[in-house]
Amino acid sequence: MSQRRPLALLVALGAVTALTVSACGSSSTPAAAPAASSAPPAVSAAPASSAAPVSTPVPASSAAPASSAPVASASNPAAVSSAAVPSGSAAGLAGCTPDSLKTQTAGTLTIATDNPAYDPWFSNNNPANGKGFESAVAYAVADKLGFAKDKVRWVKESFNAAVSPAPKDFDFDINEFTITPQRAKAVDFSTGYYDVTQAVVTTKGSKIANAKTIADLKGAKLGAQIGTTSLDALNTVIAPTSKATIFPTNDTAVAQLKNGQVDGIVVDTPTAFYMASAQLDNGVIVGQLPAGSGTPDQFGLLLDKGSALTACASKAVDALRADGTLAKLQTTWLAEAGAPVLK
What we know:
- By secondary structure, this protein is of the alpha/beta class.
- The protein folds into 2 domains: about 50-195 and about 295-335, D-Maltodextrin-Binding Protein, domain 2; about 200-290, Periplasmic binding protein-like II (D-Maltodextrin-Binding Protein, domain 2, 3-Layer(aba) Sandwich), CATH 3.40.190.10.
- It has helices spanning about 5-15, 135-145, 160-165, 230-240, 250-260, 270-280, 310-320, 325-335; strands at about 70-75, 110-115, 150-155, 170-175, 185-195, 200-205, 220-225, 245, 265-270, 285-290, 300-305.
- The strands form 3 sheets. A 5-stranded mixed sheet has the order 8-7-9-6-10. A 4-stranded mixed sheet has the order 1-3-2-4, covered by helices on one side.
- Helix 2 (about 135-145) packs across helix 7 (about 310-320) and helix 2 runs antiparallel to helix 8 (about 325-335).
- The radius of gyration is 19 Å and the shape is elongated.
């Protein structure tokens, strides 16, 4: 994972209605490549956090690039969907409670993300509404730490600024950050809250558009970017009967799919959302591939280097994984949003 995925940018422009490198992957785009788990490091810049207000409480005329400006507050009943986020816990985890945690503001959990905030990780560019996978995860973490929804404050922070070693004015940032050793030299990460999966992308009307199983893909002409985990998954998980097409870049893959030279492309799921919505006319995510061999790339909460909150953030994420919350949220906001898991 790496750079931000600019799906909602095109959403905002009306091109779409709903979307984030190391070995985690990427899709190179003319402006800002979406963060992805399957390609070499991207070189394009992350979107500027000051491009637009993250939520309606911040007027467009007053939007500022400073990450300390609150973008929304969960205390606004209209901004938070009670059905989308946990109800709030008064206790928190042992040793990790609002009274014991040294947060930016006493008794309040300050969470950052980029601006714009993209689907399906957020919804309507409003992280405080609790909708979208990462917004829901953020509130679930807050709940585990004992912070009620009205004690969560959102601020803006660009992707590049967040991964820099500069001091932070947030407690944690959630923005599709892939955990990498290089980044861990400058910032802290929680344990992973999302195991990046691989997915198959095609176009409506193609021979695999209605595929429901791995077996349905065996006879298809498929391809993936060279040197990626996506190519590994294509060869080992799908193992098609015809040799995989290898692309130098994901842009090349998209061009060949448009031209009918391949039936589908294997990319990481975050990039699949971007490709299907923004790069392809009538794009379709056929589905996510089941986990293959090896250790998947993971997204983690990002914290200041040496943060006193890192251990508690990891405890909260681990608890959410153990009780099934993360799996449920992934199903709700990713699988049911157009990326079903292929059997």
